[in-house]
Design goal:
By secondary structure, this protein is of the alpha/beta class. The chain has three domains: 86 residues, 2-Layer Sandwich (Alpha-Beta Plaits), CATH 3.30.70; 289 residues, Aminopeptidase (3-Layer(aba) Sandwich); 266 residues, Aminopeptidase (3-Layer(aba) Sandwich). Helix content is 34%, strand content 16%. It has 23 helices and 21 strands. The strands form three sheets. An eight-stranded mixed sheet has the order 5-6-8-7-9-12-10-11, with helices on both faces. An eight-stranded mixed sheet has the order 13-14-16-15-17-20-18-19, sandwiched between helices. It has a four-stranded antiparallel sheet with strand order 2-3-1-4, covered by helices on one side. It starts with a helix and ends with a helix.
Length: 766
């Protein structure tokens, strides 16, 4: 048996969150020439078929991100607006016609509108009396960020009996930005229900902060709102993305993102694709030069992180979250990350949405559309509204204010370039909708609190109508959704964290299993799926995870292992390759980066930095198995895992592969090169092999990796090199080679659990 396993070994591979730093940057250092947009146009196309919609989606790919979607393609019948340079206007027009649609010229020269905005900015005169008289603030003009800040500070000073100001933090470039809490103290000292309103997540949507500021002004000066403010608190953060907002005022009027970076020569991330709930699942880009770039990891942008932290910390009192955007005249409720999927209380969301619609229509007759954010063929994930709903906020809406499709002024339509003369009617009609939400918050009874555990439980029941089958092979999206849902079901025990993304933009997430503790805990990490074709690896890791959560030796609240040990589980590190092996090439092993010399992929288990390229690897990009990559840690998947291990202070690292039927210990880069504590590894390894044989009868081999076949750049060698004590590669036995049938999943799962239980007991007792 062991000789057979050794023979098979020649065919087999051995086999952090990215820490985002926010340097202090002087924001007066951004001195770039103002972008004029002379002769840029906005062209509208309305798709009437799915093929036409897909054609518009592919505009970014066909023309290499040379166009700017003012309104992205989402659903058949909904207008798509695209800004295009004069050089590319004909190409876009031809493309639209070729796909059976009619190109409509909505704005002939964006440059004229930008010049008008530039004139407004240049002619802006500061209100020298603002500190003493905040009521003199001009609500029907667009203001610079520091004037916005001065205004809300003045409001807090003048109306201090029921208004307070607090910092939300500092932007990447060091701008401190604030929110107001408007509401009288409760008579009994208890916390009140609250409404949270933010604006300005997208820099170029100037009308959104203007709407928030007008709302502040009316709330503090109109006595008809006194009773409302005695009953609830209203938080308003008028400028969430100050760096992007100032950049749009002074350099690029059409700027949308934050100002982080550069990444690949491009700046910023779309903050409204950067929130952790369902991050990168849909409607976002992993290209830093894209307008919808989701960032290198969830909450990589400090502005989004500050917002998420506040909402999450106050989700017990915040009963409604409204985020103001433009344009479109829409009232949108979650979920937005997928199509046809709604929160359990969707009827409540629809009802309040209708009230908001009626309130808007009653002012100037404007007819908004109330709908679900995700009811489109191309939904978008990682948005602030979905995140707020996911942490337990009851009523959540994105309000897209003017202009709508039919808003014109002497046959001129404006899009994001809404002139100051349109501020007044826009804010006047939006305010009653916000008040309608506030009144609904007033009437939310504490007895029906829709908190985190409640929504998680209902989400779990809704999303898991069909239970996850642990004795079947699943696609990566299904695995990802299962882990998210699982973590929502037990927030005190389970946490799912997105720590990065693959080359093709799939999220890489780690499930943390462990009870909270004030004491430092031992940390264990287990991964699978480094090699794409080894399907039994992720399946066994998932099988083991499910068994662990049902084992009282782990989960007992007082005596279980999880009181002293945190277990981190990453079932599929090579998601791109895994999906390619499922859809295209069953025997695919590598990642899917490239092409390099016409060939794709890198062997991730030859790409780690320790002793890279010293043995058992290939420099040929077309090598089917062992291509090491152009440099150490060239692959984003490798970088993500290295960073997480390096910063995790782990005591044990197990990586699961197939199909040798062996436990391997470091080092693997050279024969007769052993760690100083090799005897400890052998001692524990022997216990693991005995436990595995007892579980299923399979006699696993314990051997040093290099004694079998030297190969450098593997994850186990890297883990040992950074100081992790116990490091093993578990090569699961394969009765059918890499094509282990589904019937083998519980057998391999039992073997893995036996080995892992042995490791956990060793750590728990020492």
């Amino acid at each position: 048996m062991k000789t057979f396993f050794l023979f098979l070994g020649i065919f087999v591979a051995f086999s952090g969150a990215l820490i985002r730093k926010f340097p202090k940057i002087q924001h007066d250092a951004e001195a770039e020439e103002y972008k004029s947009y002379v002769d840029y146009s906005v062209i509208r196309a309305i798709p009437h078929t799915v093929d036409q919609l897909n054609a518009l989606v592919n505009v970014r790919n066909v023309f290499n991100h040379e166009f700017d979607f003012w309104r992205s393609p989402k659903v058949v019948g909904k207008a798509v607006d695209i800004m295009v340079s004069p050089e590319k206007r004909r190409d876009l027009t031809v493309y639209i016609k070729k796909n059976g649609m009619i190109p409509l010229l909505k704005i002939r020269d964006v440059g004229k509108l930008v010049a008008a905005d530039r004139q407004v900015v240049s002619a802006y005169k500061r209100n020298v009396n603002l500190a003493d008289d905040p009521d003199s603030f001009d609500f029907f003009n667009y203001h610079p960020f520091d004037e916005i800040t001065s205004y809300i500070q003045a409001v807090a000073n003048k109306y201090s009996s029921f208004v307070s100001i607090s910092s939300m933090g500092k932007s990447l470039q060091g701008r401190e930005y604030f929110m107001l809490k408007i509401g009288y103290p409760s008579t009994d000292g208890s916390q009140k229900n609250a409404l949270f309103i933010d604006a300005g997540i997208h820099a170029r949507e100037w009308i959104a902060p203007a709407t928030a500021l007008y709302t502040i002004g009316k709330l503090v000066t109109d006595s008809s709102y006194t009773d409302l403010l005695k009953a609830i608190d209203i938080y308003i953060a008028p400028s969430i993305n100050p760096d992007g907002y100032e950049y749009s005022r002074n350099t690029d009027r059409m700027w949308r993102k934050s100002r982080s970076g550069p990444r690949q020569g491009c700046y910023g991330a779309d903050i409204n694709r950067n929130f952790p709930f369902k991050w990168m699942v849909s409607g976002a880009s992993n290209n830093p030069c894209s307008e919808t770039y989701a960032g290198p990891s969830a909450l990589s942008e400090i502005e989004g992180k500050n917002l998420a932290n506040f909402v999450n910390a106050n989700n017990n009192t915040i009963k409604a979250y409204l985020t103001l955007h433009s344009y479109g005249e829409d009232i949108l409720y979650p979920w937005g990350y997928t199509t046809g999927h709604y929160p359990p209380d969707v009827n409540d969301l629809k009802a309040l949405g209708k009230e908001m619609y009626d309130a808007i229509a009653a002012v100037h007759g404007t007819k908004y559309v109330v709908g679900n954010s995700g009811d489109a063929l191309y939904p978008a994930a990682g948005a602030s509204d979905d995140y707020s709903k996911s942490v337990g906020v009851k009523y959540v809406y994105t309000v897209e204010v003017r202009p709508g499709d039919g808003d014109n002024d002497d046959d001129q339509w404006y899009g994001f370039e809404l002139p100051p003369q349109f501020i007044q009617p826009t804010v006047e009609e939006t305010l009653p909708a916000l008040i309608a939400a506030a009144k609904r918050v007033q009437n939310v009874e504490s007895s029906i609190h829709f908190g985190r555990q409640s929504i998680s439980r209902e989400l779990h029941e809704l999303e898991q109508k069909k239970s996850f089958n642990f004795e079947a092979y699943h696609g990566y999206d299904e695995i990802f959704d299962y882990l998210v849902t699982l973590s929502n079901s037990s927030p005190g025990l389970l946490t799912y964290e997105i720590i990065g993304q693959t080359f093709q933009g799939r999220p890489i997430g780690v499930l943390k299993i462990g009870y909270p503790s004030e004491k430092e805990k031992t940390k264990v990490f287990i991964d699978g799926g480094i090699h794409a074709r080894e399907w039994i690896s992720p399946a066994s890791v998932l099988w083991y995870t499910n068994e662990l959560l049902q084992d009282p030796r782990y989960t007992h609240p007082q005596t279980g292992y999880l009181n002293k040990i945190d277990i981190y589980v990453l079932p599929v590190i090579n998601a791109d390759g895994y999906e390619y092996s499922r859809t295209t090439d069953r025997m695919w092993r590598k990642s899917r980066s490239g092409p390099r010399k016409g060939c794709y992929g890198v062997d991730l288990n030859r790409n780690f930095q320790f002793q890279w390229s010293t043995s058992g690897t290939s420099k040929n990009a077309c090598d089917f198995q062992a291509y090491q990559g152009p440099k150490a840690a060239s692959e984003p998947e490798t970088q993500v895992l290295e960073n997480f291990l390096k910063n995790g202070n782990f005591s044990c690292y197990l990586t699961v592969h197939s199909f040798l039927g062996a436990i391997l210990y470091p080092y693997g880069y050279a024969v007769a090169e052993y760690p100083s504590d090799v005897e400890d590894l052998v001692k524990v390894g022997e216990k693991m092999t005995l436990a595995m044989k007892e579980a299923t009868g399979v006699d696993y081999l314990l051997i040093n990796s290099a004694d079998l076949y030297p190969a450098s750049g593997a994850s186990d060698d890297y883990a040992k090199s950074i100081g992790i004590k116990y490091v093993f590669t578990i090569e699961l036995f394969g009765s059918h080679g890499f094509k282990e049938p589904e019937a083998g999943i519980p057998l391999r799962g039992r073997e893995l659990k036996a080995a892992f239980d042995t490791m956990i007991q060793e750590l728990f007792n020492n």
